[in-house]
């Protein structure tokens, strides 16, 4: 930890002390060093204290003003950002669903569908859909923590051993599909950091509509799930005879849960209603009063409305959401501070006073300046998926945003499809423990995975995912975003 921290400090110090290379300005040099140092520390050490350190150094740099006025401006702007406030309320709202136990019922529902009985590929498809749904609603970590013990029990019951070929294929696929589900909701988790940074860099002139963004993730995810199942059947070809003994009724008996209580039922109804309220302005006539109201509330307003309602309504003398208790267990301070620091830093380095955008164009113009549209997309997407296996995925996507914006302007390309393709693609990274927190979890489960298994079955799927995003995802994003 101390070695990585020293490297992070050194990155910041070098840029802080080195003379500015035109067209970078002295403040631009400092901000680039601070941001790159934060990215390194986020990827190797922690998210919380490097974010605080980064905001402190930005305040010290003079970017927002001199002395205490500059420091105060950084803190107020960083933590007063609407994205940071929205993150707080949404983490509590979605975390409450896990807190009251809804996720256990969702997992059990997928595992007890009668269609899986005696049908190995139906079982794999339904199980992986369950991984995907849980990952979208909460996180890949929650999906894995819930389904690892259940799936291990199922494998033991079916007599599947670690030496059986289907074992590593099944579990690597479980991780891969949990990972692709993570960026589904644009107002949750690490993807919110990237979208907020993109919004900051474009000064709010290119808002990303939720519905096309979610449609892009869903279509690409389903395509990748089908491809993985096809690879299992026709390429990997493990012996799946033991899975033919799968029985939905037996799983239902083994994984018994009491009937859902009123609190759980209300939360199961609130979440889809919340999502519908956010998406309604995307597909309902703008002239409707309710659409105008929802549009004026925005994500923050809708989240605050439901938090207030759920804290007010009491069942058995207790509120549906006890804000303090849910926030204590579900509010990720790492992500909260990461959002504050990343969004502010992204806005700062893209400011014209830093010279960063001009420097990026000057540096990369020999490589990308004359590239065709598809070559440009292929280079960016490949760089994104390779680099994010060695760095924090959200931070790596943010690093690429100035490049996307600079060269899209120069090449006359629409930036949103490329930016959103990168945003979703980076979450496929799974080939090193540094790729993301849940990748660290995967590599840590020596009782389930071996590194060679992850590479043998994960590497082909990551490569296929990259090719899909270049040749299918990008044209699809152009269509969905109307570019």
Helix content: over 70%
Q: In DSSP terms, counting alpha (H) and pi (I) runs of 4 or more, how many helices? A: 22
Amino- and carboxy-terminal Cα gap: 45 Å
Strand fraction equals under 5%
Shape: globular
- Which oligomeric form is depicted? single chain
Low-confidence stretches: none
What integer is the average pLDDT? 90
**Tally of strands:** 2
Major sheet size, sense and barrel closure: 2 strands, antiparallel
The helix/strand class is mainly alpha
Query: What integer value in Å does the Rg equal?
Result: 23 Å
Topology as a string of helices (H) and strands (E):
HHHHHHHHHHHHHHEEHHHHHHHH
Q: Give the spatial strand order of the biggest sheet.
A: 1-2
Describe the structure.
There is one protein chain. With 483 residues, this protein is mainly alpha-helical. It has a domain at 1-80. Helix content is 74%, strand content 1%. The protein contains 22 helices and 2 strands. It has helices spanning 2-17, 26-44, 48-61, 67-80, 82-99, 102-111, 120-137, 140-158, 166-181, 189-201, 210-236, 248-254, 262-283, 289-312, 323-330, 333-349, 356-368, 373-387, 393-411, 415-425, 437-444, 451-480; strands at residues 314-315, 318-319. It has a two-stranded antiparallel ribbon with strand order 1-2. Helix 5 crosses helix 15 (323-330), helix 8 (140-158) packs antiparallel against helix 9 and helix 10 (189-201) runs antiparallel to helix 20 (415-425). The radius of gyration is 23 Å and the shape is globular. The two termini are 45 Å apart. The model has no long low-confidence stretch (mean pLDDT 90). This is Citrate transporter-like domain-containing protein. Keywords: Membrane, Transmembrane, Transmembrane helix, Transport. Its main location: membrane.
């Amino acid at each position: 930890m101390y070695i990585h921290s020293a490297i992070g400090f050194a990155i910041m110090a070098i840029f802080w002390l080195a003379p500015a290379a035109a067209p970078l300005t002295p403040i631009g040099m400092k901000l680039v060093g601070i941001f790159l140092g934060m990215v390194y520390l986020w990827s190797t050490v922690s998210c919380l204290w490097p974010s605080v350190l980064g905001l402190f150094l930005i305040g010290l740099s003079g970017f927002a003003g001199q002395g205490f006025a500059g420091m105060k401006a950084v803190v107020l702007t960083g933590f007063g950002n609407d994205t940071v406030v929205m993150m707080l309320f949404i983490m509590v709202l979605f975390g409450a669903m896990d807190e009251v136990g809804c996720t256990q019922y969702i997992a059990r529902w997928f595992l007890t569908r009668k269609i899986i009985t005696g049908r190995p590929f139906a079982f794999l498809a339904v199980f992986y859909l369950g991984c995907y749904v849980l990952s979208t609603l909460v996180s890949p970590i929650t999906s894995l923590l819930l389904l690892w013990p259940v799936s291990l029990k199922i494998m033991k019951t079916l007599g599947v051993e670690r030496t059986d070929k289907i074992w590593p294929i099944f579990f690597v696929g479980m991780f891969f599909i949990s990972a692709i589900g993570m960026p589904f909701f644009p107002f949750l988790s690490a993807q919110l950091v990237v979208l907020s940074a993109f919004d900051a860099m474009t000064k709010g002139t290119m808002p990303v509509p939720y519905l096309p963004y979610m449609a892009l993730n869903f279509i690409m995810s389903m395509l990748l799930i089908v491809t993985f199942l096809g690879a299992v059947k026709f390429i990997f070809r493990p012996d799946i005879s033991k899975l033919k003994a799968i029985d939905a009724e037996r799983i239902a008996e083994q994984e018994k849960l009491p009937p859902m209580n009123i609190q759980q039922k209300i939360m199961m109804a609130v979440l889809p209603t919340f999502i519908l309220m956010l998406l309604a302005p995307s597909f309902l006539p703008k002239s409707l009063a309710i659409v105008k109201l929802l549009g004026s509330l925005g994500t923050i307003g809708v989240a605050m409305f439901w938090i207030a309602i759920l804290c007010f309504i009491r069942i058995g003398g207790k509120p549906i959401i006890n804000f303090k208790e849910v926030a204590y267990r579900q509010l990720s301070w790492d992500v909260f501070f990461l959002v504050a620091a990343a969004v502010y830093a992204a806005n700062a380095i893209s400011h014209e006073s830093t010279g960063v955008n001009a420097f990026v164009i000057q540096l990369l113009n020999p490589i990308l300046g004359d590239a065709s549209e598809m070559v440009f997309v292929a280079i960016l997407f490949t760089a994104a998926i390779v680099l994010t296996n060695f760095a924090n995925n959200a931070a790596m996507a943010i690093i690429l945003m100035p490049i996307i914006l600079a060269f899209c302007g120069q090449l006359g390309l629409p930036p949103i499809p490329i930016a959103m393709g990168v945003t979703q693609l980076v979450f496929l990274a799974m080939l090193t423990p540094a790729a993301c927190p849940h990748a660290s979890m995967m590599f840590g489960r020596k009782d389930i995975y071996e590194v060679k298994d992850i590479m043998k079955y994960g590497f082909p799927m990551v490569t296929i995912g990259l090719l899909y995003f270049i040749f299918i995802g990008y044209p699809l994003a152009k269509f969905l975003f109307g570019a």
